[in-house]
Amino acid sequence: MKKFIKTLKNIWSIEELRNKILFTLLLIFIYRVGSFIVLPGIDPNKLANLTESTKGGMLGLLDAFVGGAFSKASIFALGIMPYISASIFMQLMTILVPQMQKVQKEGDSGRKKINQWTRYLTVVVTAFQAAAYIGYLKSPGNVEALIPSFSAYFVVSTVVILTVGTLFVMWLGEKITDKGLGNGTSIIIMMGILARLPESFLQEWTSRATRGGGGLLIFLIEIAFLISIIMGLIMLIQGTRRVPVNYAKQIVGNRQFGGARNFLPLKVNASGVMPIIFAQAILFLPTIFSGFTGGGWAKYFTDHTNVVYMIVYSTCVIAFTFLYTALIFNPKQMAEDLKRSNGFIPGVKPGQPTADYIGTIMDRITLPGAVLLAFVGILPGIFQLVFNTQQGFASFYGGTSLLIMVGVILDTLQQIETQLLMRQYDGLMNTGRIQGRQATTSAI
Q1: Cβ(354)–Cβ(345) under 8 Å?
Q2: 338 vs 247: CA distance, rounded Å
Q3: Using one digit for the tens of pLDDT, what is the confidence trace for 101-125?
Q4: Which of 45, 211, 221, 319 is packed most tightly, with the most Cβ within 10 A?
Q5: Structure confidence by residue, pLDDT tens digits, 386-439
Q6: Cβ 24 vs Cβ 176: under 8 Å
Q7: Would the pLDDT of 288 be above 70?
């Protein structure tokens, strides 16, 4: 406890770090306040059906990402998700399109161009999603919340406000990244997820307490499992395979360079959370084709506790993990970089043999990483099925929400620890260093 209090004092004593923390908290507060401001033309007292219809499925996941703003018909109802979609699309384009690769390699000017194109694409994506959201609000069961006297202006005003709201949230994220602490976009998503945590815990506690028959003991067991899963996710995110690398000695003048032994860290989960997002998007398509009703054969893809859903979902996650890792990981480029810096792997020839060796190792560690990632994705359904937990509470046992939360917290703690070590303070841990995700996408 003394070590913890001393660490907090060290953090607060650093003026730059203290200002970053306060600035980040201020912008998060502004974002959370905006999440409760209802769109013009909607009666907030008649949103009960909208709140109920967004529980579970892809809409429930979207509502969790925006901190309940979707079900509240808030001005931030779409949150930062259109920007995430645009960022993912642009990142894939820089991998698949040679012309985009050239722009990206132009350095700072190239990154500025891609960021500007991403913002333009965000406006287009937000406008389309706003139109779809209006259609959803006018669907049976939700249309009662619309105020008839405002119907003439509702469509235009809602599209404009939702688009401006998303751009404002995107601006908040960029400001947090520039002047605050951590990756702004990731922190905004994490705060939206955490906003649901107290309510979910309270609902589960109340549910267990009213059932009796050892319900409170089961609740404690659930908390213990949750802590274990979080520890396992930390290992999955930080897990690396260290490949030894030697650097040849070079003598320049009277000085000797190189000759050091280092390691090439290959991450077990190099694709991050992207395979889970892609798999959920694919499984959401049957629901769209069935008219959002989830009836017929589409019901298998909306029920997270269904065995068919778990099998198909796990298969998609494993497939997307290999696909996305192949897109972002280039062993040939890595081998060329090692050769250019006079580095080599002991016992392996430089050039193509090194690329083949790195690719083989990456394939071997990607398989267990993909299986673990798929298991994390279906954990909420498993716990809801086994322990009969509340759906909101079960969503924190794994899946995209918990994976993003753990990754963002690790990234933020890593930045704090770096600030402490730069000023010759002790780190946050007695032994070892905190490692972030080193995410493959800047959006998440």
Answers
A1: yes
A2: 9
A3: 888 878 788 888 888 999 999 999 8
A4: 319
A5: 877 777 777 777 777 788 888 888 888 888 888 777 776 655 665 556 666 554
A6: yes
A7: no
Could you give the count of Cα atoms lying within 13 Å of 428 in the half-sphere of its Cβ? 16
pTM of the entire predicted model = 0.79
Dihedral (Cα; 299, 300, 305, 310), 10-degree rounding: -150
Nearest Cα residue to 270 out of 129, 364, 142 = 364
Which neighbouring-strand residues pair with 38?
74
- The dihedral over CA atoms of 332, 336, 339, 345, expressed in degrees to the nearest 10, equals -20
